[in-house]
Amino acid sequence: xxxxxxxxxxxxxxxxxxxxxxxxxxxxxxxxxxxxxxxxxxxxxxxxxxxxxxxxxxxxxxxxxxxxxxxxxxxxxxxxxxxxxxxxxxxxxxxxxxxxxxxxxxxxxxxxxxxxxxxxxxxxxxxxxxxxxxxxxxxxxxxxxxxxxxxxxxxxxxxxxxxxxxxxxxxxxxxxxxxxxxxxxxxxxxxxxxxxxxxxxxxxxxxxxxxxxxxxxxxxxxxxxxxxxxxxxxxxxxxxxxxxxxxxxxxxxxxxxxxxxxxxxxxxxxxxxxxxxxxxxxxxxxxxxxxxxxxxxxxxxxxxxxxxxxxxxxxxxxxxxxxxxxxxxxxxxxxxxxxxxxxxxxxxxxxxxxxxxxxxxxxxxxxxxxxxxxxxxxxxxxxxxxxxxxxxxxxxxxxxxxxxxxxxxxxxxxxxxxxxxxxxxxxxxxxxxxxxxxxxxxxxxxxxxxxxxxxxxxxxxxxxxxxxxxxxxxxxxxxxxxxxxxxx
Amino acid sequence: xxxxxxxxxxxxxxxxxxxxxxxxxxxxxxxxxxxxxxxxxxxxxxxxxxxxxxxxxxxxxxxxxxxxxxxxxxxxxxxxxxxxxxxxxxxxxxxxxxxxxxxxxxxxxxxxxxxxxxxxxxxxxxxxxxxxxxxxxxxxxxxxxxxxxxxxxxxxxxxxxxxxxxxxxxxxxxxxxxxxxxxxxxxxxxxxxxxxxxxxxxxxxxxxxxxxxxxxxxxxxxxxxxxxxxxxxxxxxxxxxxxxxxxxxxxxxxxxxxxx
Lengths: 488, 260
What we know:
Chain B: Belongs to the ABC transporter superfamily. Ycf16 family. Chain B: It comes from Actinomycetospora cinnamomea. The structure holds 2 protein chains of 2 kinds. By secondary structure, chain A is an alpha/beta fold. Chain A has helices spanning 23-28, 53-62, 67-82, 119-128, 130-135, 157-161, 169-175, 177-183, 194-202, 435-442, 448-464, 469-483; strands spanning 141-146, 149-155, 165-168, 207-211, 221-226, 237-242, 247-255, 263-265, 268-273, 278-286, 291-301, 306-313, 318-321, 324-327, 333-342, 347-356, 362-371, 376-385, 392-402, 408-417, 422-432. Among the domains of chain A are: 36-321, no CATH class; 433-487, no CATH class. In chain A, 24% of the residues lie in helices and 33% in strands. In chain A, the strands form 2 sheets. In chain A, strands 3, 4, 6, 8, 9, 11, 13, 14, 16, 18 and 20 form an 11-stranded mixed beta sheet that branches. In chain A, helix 3 (67-82) packs antiparallel against helix 9, helix 10 crosses helix 11 (448-464) and helix 11 (448-464) packs antiparallel against helix 12. By secondary structure, chain B is α/β, with parallel strands linked by helices. Chain B is built from 8 helices and 12 strands. The A-B interface holds A 434-437, 439-448, 450-451, 454-455, 457-462 and B 54-58, 77-79, 81-83, 87-88, 90, 93-99, 104, 107-108, 111-112, 143-144, 160, 164.
């Protein structure tokens, strides 16, 4: 432990979230974050800042991991240190790797039920409304990640009876080492990119799901994630294996309180969908506007399998995220539905990657982005068709909406086709909210803000209708918040 | 009893060659329970009058007044005018993709009535109004005006009027592009709202045809940005027979000052 861990943080005196914001302050901090309170920071104070071999060894030993995982972490650390920062996409110069806590343990052991949770954590989740969601039985199981470790986890009995495994990744590694040796890092190796290397070195928490052959999980599995320690990086690792002809829909919502210094969220999500299986992974990301959100998400779809990513990016300072599907078997299908919202000071660099590696594979990318208040959205997508992936089809459609004249939107489509017999479609539009649309809605009595929010909601509706009901409602509320004071 | 009063209204629009005056001193007063037809040839400024009353930002009022029961309408934002009881049925209703008609109607009713209508009554009200206008209930879940035919758009404009219950409605060429059957249905919708309310109507049209279905108390011939002549329903009959030639001739003299 170094003494630097004890230094006081300038942010402590100016923590927002006090309810009495004036109207001006609320509007000024657009994208102002409704969950911008935080609980008394207990676990974080003793955590060490900065990254070195000792930190990695400490994380691994605290978790009683097998040696192969420690070796994987150390190798990944080495890769991370060697790889340069990406020179494309967003400006990442604000990340100070020496000023981040890489591991925070908030409670010593996992709680078995809601009542077992510590009071401050319960208070946090109460504000997020998780118990209500539970009571409403909208969720099949809730794995709630508080700081670096999953502390609350519940799965419905019938799922267990079907052999479905749904737990935090640390527990998964302990209880199902054979699955981890086979699949961990098999879709996203540590060396894939600088941030997957970082995640592989220091990962903690995340969700682990295994759905056995032929099992259809007919209610979405949900997890809530929160960052609660200032400057704490969150490096969760999710591994989902959908066995042959099985189906699962996993839903992940992210919220984070506001802090005045920068935070880093760098997750890795690996998914394997076996022959004839189907997986849908839905995320609505709403990090506070100081978080660097750099996530690697990739799925492998085998013969006849379907992988669907539904990806919403609303918060964060910078997001770089390109959910990918490697279509490895004939007739595999990949789909990405992506919606991004950028306000003042935000850059959402999001998109998708589809790699066709087998014949008769198909992919669809639908991207919608909204920029306002000087915010910036970029669509960055890759469609690659390898030699041999004949009769493949791909459709890309990206639409950007600019709410004002100071915001920016760019499209970076990359297409790499190495087979003759393929069908490709690409459509891109950039539009502005039209004066006539605003006039029409206002002439029916809606205020300018209401009219603008309605137009924006309509624009993202094709994505919103793919979300579970409560997420669609949350998305609409977030859009309304973002559009307050957007005009004039 | 309410009054909509237009006094010496001058309006210009920005063109490539600078501002161009379209309305050149319009005087018109409409009371509750009255229907006034405004008839004129293309380019006479009829639609500009409609948009100016509603407050479209493209039109700049340079002189004159619009008063609703003595209140200065020109000082109000577009949405305030709607909430004060003004309604414009547009000639070219705008598409709003992804927003369902039912969501739009309820939001608009909530805004103009000042509170959200009770769900139970509201559903009944909308269904009734849609059925009066022979609108397929499936339209409630379609995006606002998206992919609607011309006739469907016009029916939905009248539907909105019936649900928002304005004090004054400006119907801007609501008859244009309608076949006989559609015209009959739309007119029936307007007449029903007239019968159950005290609405004052400004019926802007190019043709006399709609006046066979909706009776006007007053007819104004609109030429070259102002009212050239006003009269009773018989004036429409004269237009039917002779067209606008007589009035266009009268307007020729002032045409030099108007850039082509």
